Amino acid sequence: RLAGIAFGIAYVFILNHVRILALIYAYRTAPVAFDYLHSIVIPAILILLTSLYVLWWTATHGAPVAKSSGR
User: Which sign, positive or negative, has the C-alpha torsion 43, 46, 52, 55?
Assistant: First the structure.
């Protein structure tokens, strides 16, 4: 669990830096699109990517299934 949390924090940290760089690039090259990217597109992408990571992590590292005692 701790490895998943640590990797998840690093993953979101890197995604946030990519987001900031993308917004700076958008502001410099297409200022009209900045508000749309900042308020709708990039947050949706971040939510999607973070959700996919959580789904992947829980599918591959979820709690083990309890074995029945055969009774």
Answer: negative
Judge contact between 19 and 42, C-beta under 8 A.
yes
Quote helix, strand, coil % in the chain, to nearest 5: 85, 0, 15
The Cα–Cα gap between 25 and 13 comes to: 19
Whole-angstrom Cα distance, residue 35 to residue 28?
A: 12
Contact criterion met (CB below 8 Å) for 27 and 34? yes
Is residue 48 pLDDT above 80, yes or no?
yes
Which structure tokens are listed for 4? 């998943």
The length of the chain in residues reads: 71
For 49-61, what is each residue's pLDDT tens digit?
999 999 998 898 8
How is residue 48 written in tokens? 């999607």
